[in-house]
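[Automated response] Your request has been received and processed.

Submitted sequence:
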Amino acid sequence: MFITKHLSYSLIPPNNTHMKQIKWLDGGTYNYDNPKKFIEFMQMKHPFCEEINNKEYMDDVRLTYVELYGVDEKSINIDSENVFVDSFVKLGLVEILK
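Generated structure:
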């Protein structure tokens, strides 16, 4: 898989299907297979990431949006990767593109 900030693509899409894309918090648009893989990818692309820990990542992102942007902590659910991404979609900060 080749990855840049604004574009990522596979040489061979799975089953020749069109993959959904996500416009994430950083303004970049990325291929989006599922929330768990996407959150792991976002950690891997960070230059200071030493280990993949989805729960810690979700908690850190939530804390950032609560502290810096005044988002209500209860509006960002970190119980699972699915509800975490959905929380940002509901807030209008993330968009799933078809």
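Summary generated for your ticket: The longest helix spans residues 54-69. Confidence is low (pLDDT under 50) at residues 1-13.
If you did not submit this request, please reply to this message.
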